[in-house]
Amino acid sequence: MTNLSHATRDGTHQGLIVRDVSKRFGPTRALDRIDLDIRPGEVVALLGENGAGKSTLANIIAGTFGSDTGHMTWQGRPYEPKSPGEAITHGIGLIHQEMRLLPDLPVAENVFLGRLLTRGGRVDRAEMNRRAREQLRRLGLDISPTRLAGSLRVAEQQQVEIAKALTLDAKLLILDEPTAALGGEETDHLFERIDALRREGVSFIYVSHRLEEIARICDRVVVMRDGQRVATHATAQVPVGQLVEEMVGRSVERIFPGTGVPEEREVLRVAGLSGAAFRDVSFGVRAGEVFGVAGIVGAGRTELVRAIAGVDPVTEGTVAVDGTVLRLRGPRDAIEAGVALVPEDRKGQGAVLDLTIADNVVLPSLGRVARRGWLTPRRVGEVAAGAIRTMTVKGRATQPVRTLSGGNQQKVVIAKWLELGPKVIILDEPTRGIDVGARAAIYEVIAGLARSGMAVVVVSSDLDEVLGLSHRVLVLSRGRQQGILPAGEATNSTVMRLATA
């Protein structure tokens, strides 16, 4: 429960107090007279759609930039950090949703980046390794602290970011989508650490689009919309439907669209496939079928689909499309056979952020888009305009992808592969870090692909998402295939029973 022992008689407290804070970026009003209280030892959920102002408020608190109006106090004193480093010295840290690890440095050096431990004037790598390993194990991750960060999977990188926060000795941590890439077991480990820290008086601002988690870990809820605080709840036991309606300003139910009935024709056949993180996996996907892949983090889901797409090497087994066995020497072989992969890390692997929507859309299909060997701006614009209409992307063809919301970035990544006319499309974590309104649009895209006759494979840490979209679900556990369940038999309990076998 919330720790209110630090409150004073006049209603103030020794935590964070934000009053009348506003912020504009040019003509855009990002925040409008925001008030916020975070008391010692409590976890406050900060909810809102993309663009609601959550990140702007978090960055002001964390010292990334200042506000235009208003003031803050922290631990009873005026607080106006000029940089993230200054905020950290005051005991306030922000862990971003997007990973900011340096891929060519070891895990331990990433955890202690900017504050390397020293002994006798020299970097104490042994102590950094020990402390990094300890924090990672508390989160349920057993990896070597000397391993390069760039070799980790997205979920492991997310846990390293969280471990980095836990070593700050901070008194207030802002967690932005901390479980976006985590499965149920990893999320439980994180919540255990949060519970332990708040008993020590550490406070948390918890930003998440996974509304089902809010009641499990948070004490109070603050809802933002269009830069304003629109609701505050003294408890986290608020119906999800009510929170969604407050966030988007209208009633939005999490209803998965109809995906139609698959054809009998099998498009994709995986037989006895083995790789570095999985063994002897076999399944088929029919035209018009959404085939889900479930399992906890570390089960080998991402490694499996990367192997099917020719990204990672196959040690045994075969992949066939329309009855033809593929010789997978790299992604090009899979692409030419009609297999497209939308990766889990859309910003790092799926899109070139500084290029425009148009350039991203035509990037994999330059040969098809060009006419008589010439690629003209007009032709690129025509193709991009068609993709924007089809995928309902909110943006202009000439707009850099970096400026789009997460949901629209994901639509662009999907659109660029659809330009190739694939027979099989694989979507790995298709809604990671995407708000509730945008998720519905992505679900409709996936359902539309299936209804058009495409074979669709969906990998997701959100089990409800897998169950709601899929005709059948393959369950992996520690790299082993545990079963394939038809929609009528695939439930949370049956899938988790197999996933933890």
Keywords:
Rossmann fold; 2 domains; 6-stranded mixed beta sheet
Question: Could you explain how this protein is built, in words?
Answer:
Helices cover 33% and strands 24% of the residues. It is built from 18 helices and 22 strands. It has helices at 54-61, 84-89, 107-111, 125-138, 154-166, 184-199, 214-217, 240-248, 301-308, 331-336, 346-350, 357-362, 366-369, 377-391, 406-418, 436-451, 463-469, 492-499; strands at residues 16-25, 28-38, 43-47, 69-74, 77-78, 92-95, 118-119, 122-123, 172-176, 203-207, 220-225, 228-233, 266-274, 281-286, 290-294, 316-321, 324-325, 339-342, 424-428, 455-459, 472-477, 480-486. The strands form five sheets. The protein has a six-stranded mixed beta sheet, sandwiched between helices. Strands 18-19-20-15-21-22 form a six-stranded mixed beta sheet, with helices on both faces. It has a four-stranded antiparallel beta sheet with strand order 2-1-4-5, with helices on one face. Strand 1 (16-25) and strand 2 (28-38) form a beta hairpin.
Q: How is the secondary structure organized here?
A:
Elements: E1 16-25, E2 28-38, E3 43-47, H1 54-61, E4 69-74, E5 77-78, H2 84-89, E6 92-95, H3 107-111, E7 118-119, E8 122-123, H4 125-138, H5 154-166, E9 172-176, H6 184-199, E10 203-207, H7 214-217, E11 220-225, E12 228-233, H8 240-248, E13 266-274, E14 281-286, E15 290-294, H9 301-308, E16 316-321, E17 324-325, H10 331-336, E18 339-342, H11 346-350, H12 357-362, H13 366-369, H14 377-391, H15 406-418, E19 424-428, H16 436-451, E20 455-459, H17 463-469, E21 472-477, E22 480-486, H18 492-499
Parallel strand pairs: 3-10, 3-11, 6-9, 9-10, 15-20, 15-21, 18-19, 19-20
Antiparallel strand pairs: 1-2, 1-4, 4-5, 7-8, 11-12, 13-14, 13-16, 16-17, 21-22
Helix pairs in contact: 14-15, 15-16
